[in-house]
Structures
1.
Amino acid sequence: MQPDLLPGPRAASVLYQLRSTPPLVHCMTNDVVQNFTANVLLAIGAAPAMVIEAEEAAQFAPVASALLINIGTLTSASRQAMLAAIHAANESDTPWVLDPVAVGALEFRTQFAREILALKPAAIRGNASEILALAGEHSAGRGVDSADDALSALPAALKLAQLTGAVVAVTGEEDYITDGENAWSVAGGGVLMTRVVGTGCALSAVVAACCSLPGSRLDNVAAACQFMKLAGEQAIAASRGPGSFVPAFLDALYGLKAEALA
Ligand SMILES: Nc1ncnc2c1ncn2[C@@H]1O[C@H](COP(=O)(O)OP(=O)(O)O)[C@@H](O)[C@H]1O
Ligand SMILES: Cc1ncsc1CCOP(=O)(O)O
Ligand SMILES: [Mg+2]
């Protein structure tokens, strides 16, 4: 399959919708990226809430617009809380998104991620090594960063999408987004995005926000990828390295214009 470039006007209209009805994203994410994820959601125009206790998470998932499950620092307790939140989300039709951080490299999280694939994620967003491993393919990943090329993981993304019904986004130098039938590609960004922690995790939170919006879920997830690519590119042009990239990136997300996407 040869993915087409996501048309700019589609991304522009998703940004417009997101800002007209700001989604409230229930984030169950890893300990490393909590603050950055919340700031990215606020900068783009969505709202974050980090609710992690099992009882509260099950209560909050139905209230939220979308739920993010990121297994970057999974523990036995967070595993139970995540399961409770996913079940509550499914009962109330709240879309939930999986970020399979470091799947393949470690047994406990790999088993958990495979188990919750049966619980109907709306979308899955990971780097190439994670998507390959989650699909049961050979992956060169050893930790949270990818050691594989995103295009090489597109067949695995297609397979996962067909197996689960989720829209799958595999990210890297270029991003590929598929519902198992059609695929978009999204270009842009830059390597500096991999020299700060949390860009992938924050993207998954933006994907969750976009999954709550009306319209084509495939287009909505691809638009989320496009927002991060364009803001990343603008931030790289305005910064001198990882330290100045982070504030420039938040500023670029905040200032992102539908016209620039279109
Ligand atoms: N080599 C690259 N060139 C341009 N953009 C990149 C590159 N690698 C990653 N990105 C971008 O950085 C963000 C995080 O993606 P990625 O590094 O794949 O996820 P993760 O942080 O989960 O490993 C995405 O927006 C992606 O498009
Ligand atoms: C470094 C690290 N360790 C466990 S989770 C995490 C953050 C990973 O962030 P990202 O996937 O966005 O690079
Ligand atoms: Mg990641």
Note: The chain has one domain: 4-253.
2.
Amino acid sequence: MEIALIISVVIALLVGTVLVGFLDRRPAPPKGAYPGLRDADDPAPGVASGGSHGSTAVLERPEAPDAELLAPAPKHAAPPVVEAAPVETAPVEVEPETTRQLERPEAAGTRLARLRARLLKSNNVFGKSLLALLSQDRIDDDVWDEIEETLLMADLGTDATMELVDRLKARVTVAGTRDPQELRGLLREELVAMLDPSLDRRIAATRKNDLPAVTMVVGVNGVGKTTTVGKLARVLVAEDRTVVLGAADTFRAAAAEQLATWGARVGVETVKSDVEGADPASVAFEAVKTGIEQEVDCVLVDTAGRLQNKANLMDELGKIKRVIEKQAAVDEVLLVLDATTGQNGLTQAKVFAEVVDVTGIVLTKLDGTAKGGIVVAIQRTLGVPVKLIGLGEGADDLAPFTAEGFVDALLAD
Ligand SMILES: Nc1nc2c(ncn2[C@@H]2O[C@H](COP(=O)(O)OP(=O)(O)OP(=O)(O)O)[C@@H](O)[C@H]2O)c(=O)[nH]1
């Protein structure tokens, strides 16, 4: 009996020890977790948005692409995708895996020509009225006033309007012509000059010092920023560039998913965090790291742009840039602006320009406004070229901007 009692006590003690050891153990860090990159003096993640977020983020690591799903791979389609492209579900007519292809985006060069009609439709008042006014038999002060009004209505801005009217007056007087074609040519020249065709509008997309070109895309939420990053990836893929996307807009849960879907359609990997409100700088860091490892041509980093507080914005964008630059230079900061917001867009532009060194403007939704003159106003205000314009919601409705192409579209018959 006694022996049985002693044995029971020993067994109970052993079981207790094992249980205590097991429960005491902290859970192992999840696979793929990496330390947050906030500096010691940085505010805790999520403070700015009022959320409570951890300082570590778990990035999704891409699975190796299913060679058959992606085959036959175009030469630019090598990078793995994080999220598989939406797969057609029709069971009967499903294509054999081997014939399924990634989307082939439209070449950049043909886009503005294709989208001309949209620009003309939305901005015909601008181009057509100017031409009609200039072509009148006699251009008196009233006509010049109307020309001035037309330019102001198109959001050209006061300074640019005055300048253009003065130049047109001088040239029309000197030329002494009433010929509509000559007047059109003259107006074209002056409008192109206002847009400064000498500006370098190329997007940084070439590797430098064995590192990818890094582009940060900034702008207020809702202007079409995430869409623009997705569309820009397509522009680059169409130019046979390899790309990695970084979903550093961690404040809108759907933004990362949205971006990943854009990327997956053209075989571009998106680095994102599963944690809503994760440290955007960490995501940006991982995206650039992935881009370096995969030796891609460029990394595009989407950011959040809450404007309630300029100091927060400065903190966040400054931090992202600083953290990226631990690995590679930020070659391009593209500011996305919504053309339909007119002067409000200009105010936003100024705030962002004070916070980061903007190198180019992307003007979205030009298909939805008759105020095409905003292109001139923004360029002049910021001294930064408009590099791309958005002319619709379609995947390839983002076109590289050229002064001549834009003006020709405005003045087309
Ligand atoms: N008509 C038109 N719509 C556009 C254009 N560019 C973007 N959009 C639309 O604008 C809406 C907002 O785009 P998003 O990319 O989600 O905006 P966002 O700035 O990224 O917003 P957050 O993700 O919240 O930061 C979407 O419905 C886009 O399809 C454009 O050039 N023309």
Note: Confidence is low (pLDDT under 50) at residues 12-100.
